[in-house]
Amino acid sequence: MSSSVCEEPIAEQVLLTSSEISLTKATKVPHHIAIAMDGNRRWASRRFMPALVGHWKGADAITKVVRAASDLGVKVLTLYAFSTENWNRSESEVNELMKVFTHYLKKNLSFMLEEGVRLDSIGDLSKLPQDVQDIFFQTKMATKDGKKIDLVLAVNYGGRDDIRRATLAIVGDFEKGLLKKEDISEDLISSYLDTAKWKDPDLFIRTSGEQRLSNFLLWQFSYTEVYITKTLWPDFNEKHLLQAVLEYQQRERRLGGA
Predict the structure, then answer these.
(1) Active site residue 108
(2) What is the tally of structural domains in the chain?
(3) Which of 71, 86, 173, 183 is flagged as catalytic?
(4) Range of the domain at 207
(5) Which residue among the candidates 38, 120, 202, 235 is catalytic per the annotation?
(6) Residue 13, in any domain of the structure
(7) Does 1 reside within a domain?
(8) Which residue, 200, 180, 182, 181, is CA-closest to 190?
(9) What is the pLDDT of residues 40-76, one digit of tens each?
């Protein structure tokens, strides 16, 4: 994976202009972008606010990034919303994050329907409170006919857990006689992962300057381009996304070649 770090701040803008969108090359727009939305707590701390304020502000950033990605021609946007490790945070913070999920999905249902956004998720949602599971299911059903962009929220997701659950499923099918060991291939393993219905990400964006994967899409990132920005997620906007896409378009993807 190749990577870079963007250090320059970018002023906030509500929407990308048509001239800015035209800067991108339609034939080389990343089909699938994954983002680790990092920096909510630091954003709040720098303003002497509780961490929970940062999470609510971070949720506000999602809608404008989804719209901008769709306008640029991106077809799948996967956002790392809650990792398997996030359960280790305080009970009050975890509870507040569950409220953020519920509020965001209810508040933005009309936006998703109007903009052709199809909601989906990866991760083990069965560990979430029942009301949060219900709102995810209801929103997925309501937006299932969206055709413009898939918004995939990674919730209670970990790359290692994804591979673990896929391995259990493969072993289960082997024991049922549905698979032979000769069937095991990279493609078959991929077909058992949470992301089976989508192509692997072309571009991974990590906010807040952290230079690690944090257990996100470990299998799927094999040939993904990495772009790191020091911008904290609540401040990440349409122009930051545009800059990441423009840099991606300057790279030559070798996909494992020399």
Answers:
(1) no
(2) 1
(3) 86
(4) 29-158+200-250
(5) 38
(6) no
(7) no
(8) 200
(9) 889 999 999 888 888 999 999 999 999 999 999 999 9
